[in-house]
Specification:
binds iron/sulfur cluster; 2 domains; TIM Barrel; 13% strand; alpha/beta
Length: 403
């Protein structure tokens, strides 16, 4: 077995990874499976060793590892770690099966505005991107997306947009109320960023059921590197707690491999998610957009994103976890692999085709040319090919079951 020596970014010490490392990784996965939590240094151990083995993470400070044997041994080691990933995925899949069997929930995504008052450095529709071709969907256009979606079997509509205050609270309530009145058996999810407690309450009273607000990174230092000064992690987190208090099913999440991200940052993400205990957890690889300050930063990796989906499934067993479009953008079978790592939701696009290409948070986003029906049936085939099935269901979060 080849030994691999690398710099541990948590402790700053050189550590050796060998057969004992593999045993310990398995032990920690078993512990997470049983107790749904780990200590910070235990998460770090798993992530460091996974990252060192794949050697493809864009985690900024993980470098500095050297081989002391030849490439064959190196490959053997990587194969061993790959088998650890598969060990994790068997466990995470079994947990997803326990809660959701082989059913995959679909959400109809309606990207209704690409205007945004914010300037997140990683985002293609950030305010400063003068090249973005801006659009807003009208009330009728949004309703027509829902009509199409309902006929295709969608029972959740996700209204997603930048932070666009030209839709007033009354406008948003009008849209939510109209959808819920026409389709009372459907859930409405909002993904429209940071708003006041009062606004969130109004949307909830108008009928909104769920809210997605990724925290993006739980480290204040890292947050500072991804956002301008006026956007704070403290406010982001406060919004999440407000949403939960009001009664929404709340989703959060983060980017994998975002610029300057360290292992410690990811550990903080995991600990925050454990503490917050969201109903939904969305993670996807960072993918650069050509017209942003991060245009030349490397993308996050499939391997680490999948590994983290597995960890999150064990940590929050009943969570709704999407296999994201970003995952499918960095690998042709990204969504299928996400499901096989423990995800149980997919979110195809219901937005009109003429605006799809304009909602580009990152480069090379897939499925921007297909009609909603094409996407729906393409996904169905893909999901059936791995032994799962799409269901016509609101797809709410199930309560925790006894171990
Ligand atoms: S990530 Fe969201 S809040 Fe930030 S600029 Fe993009 S749309 Fe706006």
């Amino acid at each position: 077995m080849g030994l691999k020596i690398y710099m541990n970014t948590i402790t700053g010490t050189n550590v050796k990874t060998d057969v004992n490392t593999l045993k310990r990784m398995k032990y920690l996965i078993d512990k997470l499976y049983e107790y749904h939590k780990l200590e910070a240094d235990e998460f770090a151990f798993l992530l460091e060793n996974h990252t060192a083995s794949t050697g493809v993470s864009s985690i900024a400070d993980k470098k500095n590892y050297t081989d002391d044997e030849n490439n064959t041994n190196d490959k053997n080691y990587t194969d061993e770690i790959e088998s650890i990933s598969q060990y994790l995925f068997e466990k995470s899949r079994s947990v997803a099966q326990k809660y959701y069997s082989n059913k995959i929930y679909i959400r109809g995504l309606i990207e209704f505005t690409n205007y945004c008052r914010n300037d997140c450095y990683y985002c293609g529709i950030r305010r400063s991107n003068k090249k973005a071709d801006r659009y807003r969907l009208s009330f009728d256009e949004i309703l027509s997306c829902c009509d199409k979606g309902y006929a295709l079997g969608f029972r959740t509509f996700v209204l997603q947009g930048g932070e666009d205050l030209s839709y007033s609270d009354d406008d948003m309530c009008h849209i939510i109320y109209a959808i819920k009145s026409k389709y009372p058996d459907c859930a409405v999810t909002l993904s429209i960023g940071e708003r006041s407690y009062e606004s969130y309450l109004k949307y909830y009273k108008a009928g909104a059921d769920r809210y997605l607000l990724r925290h993006e990174t739980a480290s204040p230092t890292h947050y500072r590197l991804l956002h301008p000064k006026n956007q704070t992690l403290a406010n982001r987190k406060q919004c999440l707690y407000n949403l939960k208090e009001i009664g929404y099913q709340v989703g959060t999440g983060f980017m994998v491999g975002s610029p300057y991200q360290t292992t410690r940052d990811i550990v903080e993400d995991l600990l925050f998610i454990k503490e917050f205990n969201p109903h939904m957890i969305g993670i996807g690889p960072f993918i650069p957009h050509k017209d942003t300050p991060f245009f030349n930063k490397p993308a996050g990796t499939l391997e680490l994103t999948l590994f983290l989906i597995g960890i999150l499934r064990l940590m929050v067993p009943n969570a709704l976890i999407p296999a994201t479009t970003a995952l499918a953008t960095i690998h042709p079978q990204g969504r299928e692999k996400g499901i096989l790592a423990g995800a149980n939701v997919v979110m195809p696009n219901l937005s009109p085709v003429h605006v799809r290409k304009k909602y580009t948070l990152y480069d090379n986003k897939i499925c921007t040319g297909e009609e909603a029906a094409e996407c729906r049936f393409c996904l169905q085939k893909r999901i059936e090919s791995i032994g799962y099935e799409i269901v016509v269901d609101r797809g709410d979060c199930k309560p925790i079951l006894p171990s």
